[in-house]
Amino acid sequence: MKQNETSLNSQENKNLSDIDGIGDAHFSANINTALREDAFELDDETKVQLIQKHFKDIMQILGLDLTDDSLVGTPKRVAKMYVKEVFKGLNPKNKPHITLFENKYKYDEMVLVKDISFHSMCEHHFLPFFGKAHVAYIPKDKVVGLSKINRLVQFFAQRPQVQERLTIQIADDIREILKTEDVAVLIEAKHLCVAARGVADSQSLTITERFRGKFNCDDRKNQFLSAIKGRE
Ligand SMILES: [Zn+2]
Predict the structure, then answer these.
(1) What CATH topology corresponds to 40-86?
(2) Catalytic-residue membership of 223
C-alpha cells in the first residue's frame, strides 16, 4: 500500500511539473474526451455527494467561512451543477435521441443551422467558454429534425472541452448519424480563461472550423461562409 501511495504521489508530481511546463497552451491531440473506463460506475447522486464534499474542502482551504449564510449552500450547488448541467454531456446516456426522416424531396443542397448558442467549459482551467456554432450538411438519404442539431451541439458542449475538439466531435457525429460526408462546422467563442486571467483579453474571439466532403471545395465553403456572415 505504502509503495503504491509513493508511486502514485511521484506520478502526480511528475504530472504537476509537466503542467507547469505546458503552461497555458490549449492543446489536445485526442478527438475523444479522455474518460476512464469506470467513469459511470458511480451513479449521479453519489457523484453529487462526493463533489460536494471535495468542493467544500477547496473552499475551506481557501479560508472561506462555510457557516456564512451565503456560502453554506455553495458546495452542493456546484456539485449539482457539475453533474446535472454543465458536465451532463460526459455521460452517453444523456445523448439526445435523434430521429431521422426520409429525404423525400431528394433535397441535395446545403442545410444550415446558424447561430446556435452554446456554453462549454475549458478543460484546462474549468472556466466557461461560450459563443455560437454554425452547422451545415448536405443530405443524402436522411434528414434530421433541425432542433436536434442544436441539442447535439449542447450535448458535446456540456463536458470539459477544448474548442477544437468540440468542433470535430460535432462534425464527426453529424457525419455518422446522417451518413453524409458533406458537413461543415464553424464555432466562434469567447474563453473566460483568456478574458478573465492570463493575458486578460476580453475582446478576442476564437474561431475553429471543420469542413468535410463537398465543403472542402471553395464554392461550397464560400456558400457556407457567406451564409453565416452578417451574424452578430
Ligand atoms: Zn482555458
Answers:
(1) GTP Cyclohydrolase I; Chain A, domain 1 (1.10.286)
(2) no
